[in-house]
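Tokens for chain A. Residues wanted.
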């Protein structure tokens, strides 16, 4: 399979197992992470792209040539309503850039979904 997928949130609890499965399924996986060394240890068979959702240029560079984007983001439990929020701000950045870069599909898993199901 030559399809390229960028994974944002790969080093988290849910993202790790999904990223491992994408690699097993022969996707050409790129991991977007704030810690290149940590991501490289977890995913030696993936391309690692160091960046941060706060930096739109790093997101843009990571998305070039990608067919798909998978995101698994969360809000730190200690976060205040006025803090930058990866689910609100990061997702907006990713969607805007994905449209411009021609990404075919975005998949997004949010732990906040559980709040809606209660």
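Reply:
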């Amino acid at each position: 399979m030559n399809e390229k997928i960028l994974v944002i949130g790969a080093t988290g609890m849910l993202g790790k197992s999904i990223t491992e499965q994408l690699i097993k399924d022969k996707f050409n996986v790129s991991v977007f992470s704030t810690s290149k060394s940590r991501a490289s240890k977890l995913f030696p068979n993936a391309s690692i792209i160091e960046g941060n959702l706060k930096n739109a240029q790093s997101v843009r560079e990571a998305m070039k040539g990608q067919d798909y984007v998978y995101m698994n983001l969360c809000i730190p439990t200690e976060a205040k309503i006025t803090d930058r929020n990866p689910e609100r701000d990061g997702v907006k950045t990713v969607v805007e850039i994905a449209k411009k870069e021609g990404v075919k599909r975005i998949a997004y898993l949010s732990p906040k979904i559980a709040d809606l199901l209660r």
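The chain is about 40% helix and 20% strand. The domain at 4-117 is CATH 3.40.50.720 (Rossmann fold).
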